[in-house]
C-alpha cells in the first residue's frame, strides 16, 4: 500500500471507502464529472460517495465506481464491511435500551440498511425509530440526480422506494416507537426543525435562472428561423443538443414556473427534431420525438406547443400516406385556442388530408374554413418561424394541393401562382424557402395536368436549383410525382418530357438523405 493510501484500519470502513474512492479517482486522472459520465451517474453521486459525513452509497453505485477505477473489488468489499459495522451499531443501540421498552421498527434487511431516494443508505441509532435525522433520507426533499432514468427509477408521484426498503408508515411508527426519554426531547425537536429548514433551502434552491430559460427559448427561435436556410444535418445536431440540455436541467430542481418553461423548450426542440426527422426520411423516428413533445406540451400546459406538435404528427402521418391518421391529428390540433397561425396550417392541412383520403365533401368544407381563418389569422405572441409558423402563402400551397386532389387543376394553378408571387414579394429574412419550393411544384403539376409541358418545365427550374443539403425527403417525393405525371401523360418521348425526366433523375440522385447514409 502506497504512502498516500489510507491504511489506518481503526478508521470506520465507510470513512476508508470514501477516501479510497477519492484516491483512486485522482490516480486515474479523472474529475468527479468525468467519473460520473463513465458510470452513468451525475457528479453529485460521485461527490456524495467521497464524503464521510454522508449516507453509505448504494451497492450498485459502488460496483460501478469499482469497475470504472479498476479497483478489483476493493471498494465493494469496503462497502460490505461498512454495512456490517452499521448493523453492529444498530444492534448495540438496541441493546442499550431500557428493559421493557417496545421493540422499535426494524429496517429492511435489503443490503442490511435502509435505502433512500438518492441511492444512499442511512445509518445511526435513531434510524430504528423511523426518524429522519440523517442529512439525506427517504422523504427528504432531494433533487433527482440521475440524468437518464431506468424503468425502476421513481418519477413524478411514484413512491421513492420499493415496498421492501420503504420507511415505515406513520401508523407503524406510532405503534412501535419507544417512549421518548426526557433527555431526547430537545434532540428530537431540533431534528424536526432542521428538516423544515432543509426543506426551505431545497425549495428556494434552483439549477435554473431567468437568463437560462430565456437563452433556451432564444436558441429554439434561432433554430426554427434557420430551418432550410442552413444545412439540415448540422441543424439536427444543434437541435438535439438543445433538447439534451433541457433534459439535463429538468433532472435538477427549479422553481415550478421555470420547470414549465423548460418543458416548453424541450417540447419545441423535440417538435423540431420530429420535423427534421421527416425531412430526413425517418417518419418513424419523428413519431417518437413528437410523442415526447406532446408530453412536454402537457406538462408545460402550452396550447401553442400542443397545436404545433399535432401539426408535426399530421406531417409524419401524411408523408407515410396515412391520410386518416393525419386528419385526426390536424382536427385535434384545432381544438386548442390561442394558437396563432398554427390554426391556419392545421385547417389547411386537414383539407388536404381529407381530399387525399377521398372525402371530397368534407375536404371542401375544411378548405372553406381554412380560407376564412386566413382572413383573420394573426401570429401568436410566442410564435416561432420556419416550419412552426404558417403564412398565407404557405397555406396557399396546401390549398393548391387540395384543389389538385379534388380534380380542379385550374383552381390549383391559380392558387399556386398566387402563393409563389407572395413568396417572391417576401423579404429574404422571412421567406420560407421550403414552402416556396412546394408551391412551385404545385405549379408544375397543375401545368402538366392541364397539358402545358413547356410551362411545367419552366416552373420546375427554380426547384432543381435547390442545394443538395436542402433536398429533403418531402421535396424529393414531390419532384418524383412530377416524373410520374410526365410518364402517365405519355410525354416521355417528347424532348421537353425527356428533359424533365432527366433533370428529375439527377435531382433525386443527390439528396440530403443520401448524404446522411454515405
From TrEMBL:
HTH cro/C1-type domain: residues covered: 21-78
SMART domains given in the database record: HTH_XRE
CDD domains on file: HTH_XRE
Domain of life of the source: Bacteria
Region Disordered: start-end pairs: 86-108, 124-159
Basic and acidic residues: compositionally biased ranges: 137-149
Signal peptide feature range: none
Originating organism: Saccharothrix xinjiangensis
Lineage: Bacteria, Bacillati, Actinomycetota, Actinomycetes, Pseudonocardiales
Protein name: Helix-turn-helix domain-containing protein
Amino acid at each position: 500500500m502506497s504512502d498516500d493510501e489510507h491504511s489506518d484500519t481503526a478508521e470506520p470502513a465507510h470513512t476508508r471507502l470514501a477516501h479510497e474512492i477519492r484516491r483512486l479517482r485522482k490516480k486515474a486522472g479523472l474529475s468527479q464529472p468525468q467519473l460520473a459520465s463513465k458510470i452513468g451517474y451525475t457528479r453529485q453521486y460521485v461527490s456524495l460517495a467521497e464524503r464521510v459525513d454522508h449516507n453509505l452509497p448504494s451497492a450498485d453505485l459502488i460496483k460501478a465506481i469499482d469497475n470504472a477505477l479498476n479497483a478489483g473489488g476493493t471498494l465493494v468489499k469496503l462497502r460490505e464491511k461498512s454495512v456490517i459495522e452499521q448493523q453492529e451499531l444498530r444492534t448495540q443501540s438496541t441493546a442499550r435500551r431500557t428493559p421493557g421498552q417496545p421493540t422499535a421498527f426494524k429496517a429492511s434487511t435489503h443490503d442490511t440498511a435502509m435505502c433512500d431516494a438518492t441511492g444512499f443508505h442511512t445509518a445511526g441509532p435513531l434510524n430504528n425509530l423511523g426518524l429522519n435525522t440523517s442529512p439525506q433520507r427517504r422523504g427528504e426533499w432531494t433533487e433527482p440526480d440521475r440524468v437518464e432514468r431506468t424503468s425502476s427509477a421513481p418519477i413524478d408521484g411514484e413512491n421513492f422506494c420499493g415496498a421492501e426498503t420503504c420507511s415505515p408508515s406513520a401508523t407503524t411508527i406510532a405503534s412501535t416507537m419507544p417512549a421518548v426519554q426526557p433527555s431526547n426531547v430537545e434532540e428530537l425537536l431540533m431534528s424536526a426543525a432542521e428538516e423544515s429548514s432543509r426543506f426551505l433551502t431545497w425549495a428556494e434552491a434552483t439549477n435554473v435562472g431567468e437568463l437560462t430559460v430565456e437563452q433556451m427559448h432564444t436558441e429554439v427561435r434561432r433554430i426554427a428561423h434557420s430551418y432550410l436556410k442552413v444545412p439540415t444535418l448540422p441543424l439536427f445536431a444543434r437541435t438535439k443538443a438543445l433538447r439534451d440540455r433541457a433534459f439535463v436541467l429538468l433532472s435538477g430542481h427549479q422553481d415550478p414556473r421555470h420547470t414549465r418553461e423548460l418543458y416548453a423548450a424541450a417540447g419545441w426542440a423535440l417538435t423540431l427534431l420530429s420535423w427534421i426527422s421527416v425531412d430526413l426520411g425517418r417518419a418513424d423516428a419523428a413519431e417518437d420525438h413528437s410523442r415526447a413533445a406532446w408530453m412536454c406540451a402537457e406538462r408545460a400546459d402550452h396550447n401553442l406547443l400542443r397545436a404545433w406538435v399535432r401539426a408535426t404528427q399530421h406531417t409524419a402521418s401524411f408523408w407515410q400516406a396515412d391520410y386518416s391518421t393525419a386528419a385526426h391529428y390536424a382536427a385535434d390540433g384545432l381544438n386548442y385556442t390561442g394558437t396563432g397561425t398554427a390554426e391556419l396550417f392545421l385547417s389547411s392541412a386537414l383539407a388536404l388530408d381529407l381530399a387525399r383520403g377521398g372525402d371530397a365533401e368534407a375536404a371542401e368544407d375544411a378548405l372553406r374554413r381554412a380560407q376564412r381563418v386566413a382572413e383573420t389569422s394573426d401570429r401568436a405572441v410566442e410564435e416561432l418561424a420556419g416550419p412552426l409558423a404558417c403564412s398565407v402563402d404557405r397555406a396557399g400551397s396546401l390549398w393548391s394541393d387540395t384543389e389538385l386532389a379534388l380534380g380542379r387543376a385550374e383552381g390549383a394553378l391559380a392558387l399556386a401562382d398566387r402563393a409563389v408571387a407572395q413568396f417572391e414579394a417576401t423579404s429574404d429574412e422571412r421567406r420560407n424557402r421550403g414552402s416556396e419550393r412546394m408551391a412551385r411544384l404545385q405549379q408544375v403539376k397543375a401545368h402538366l395536368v392541364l397539358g402545358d409541358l413547356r410551362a411545367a418545365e419552366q416552373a420546375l427550374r427554380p426547384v432543381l436549383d435547390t442545394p443538395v443539403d436542402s433536398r429533403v425527403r418531402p421535396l424529393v417525393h414531390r419532384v418524383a410525382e412530377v416524373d410520374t405525371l410526365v410518364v402517365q401523360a405519355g410525354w416521355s418521348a417528347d424532348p421537353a418530357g425527356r428533359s424533365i425526366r432527366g433533370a428529375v433523375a439527377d435531382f433525386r440522385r443527390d439528396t440530403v438523405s443520401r448524404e446522411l447514409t454515405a
